[in-house]
Amino acid sequence: MSSNSDAPATRILRSVLLLGRRLRAARPEGPHSLSTIAILATLHRLGPMPAWRLALEEHLQPQSVTRIIAALERDGLISRMRSETDRREIELSITPHGRTVLSEDIGARRAWLEKTMDDHLTPEERRTLMEASEIMLKLACAHIKNEAQSGEE
Fold first, then answer.
1. Count of CB atoms within 10 A of residue 69's CB?
2. Which residues pair with residue 118 across a beta bridge?
3. Candidates 3.30.365.10, 2.60.40.10, 1.20.1260.10, 1.10.10.10; CATH matching 23-120
C-alpha cells in the first residue's frame, strides 16, 4: 500500500494545520475562546445578523451559538437590536469593546506572522506566499460559489 504523505493535498493540509496551530499559540492571553473571536470576526465582516444566520455562517448548532451569544452579551462584546427590515427579528452586532478585543487578538497573530515572515523568508518567498494566499482564499470560499450556483438551479 502506497503512502499519501507526499501527496499535494496532504502536504498542503499538514502545512495549513501546523501554521494554524502556531497562529493560535500567538494569541494574547485572555478569557476569549477561538469561538468567541470567530463570532466577533463574522459580525465585524458581515455586519448585524440574527442568531440563526450567525449559526449558519459559523457552522455551529443553534444551541451552541445561543450559549456563546449569552456570554458575549454579558461581556459587552455584542449587542442585540430589532432588525430595521423585519421588526420581529432580533439582530446581533459587535460593540466597540468587541471590536477592540477582536483587533487585539488578530493584531497579536498578525505581528507574529509579519515578524516570522521577515525573519525567515526571502522577498521572493514572501511574494510567492502572497500569491498562494489568494489561491488558498479561492479554495476556502469555493463552498460559497457552489451554494450560490445551487440556488440558481
1. 19
2. none
3. 1.10.10.10
Candidates 74, 90, 92; CA nearest to 82 is 90
Domain boundaries of the chain, sorted by first residue? 23-120, 122-153
pLDDT digits (tens, 9 = 90+) for 120-144: 999 999 999 999 999 999 998 887 6
Give Cα separations from 35 to 32, 67, 87 (angstroms). Answer: 8, 11, 28
Count the alpha carbons within 13 Å of 33 in the hemisphere toward its beta carbon.
8
Measured in residues, the chain has a length of: 153
Q: What is the pLDDT of residues 35-49, one digit of tens each?
A: 899 999 999 999 999
Distance CA 67, CA 144 (A): 27
* pTM passes above 0.85: no
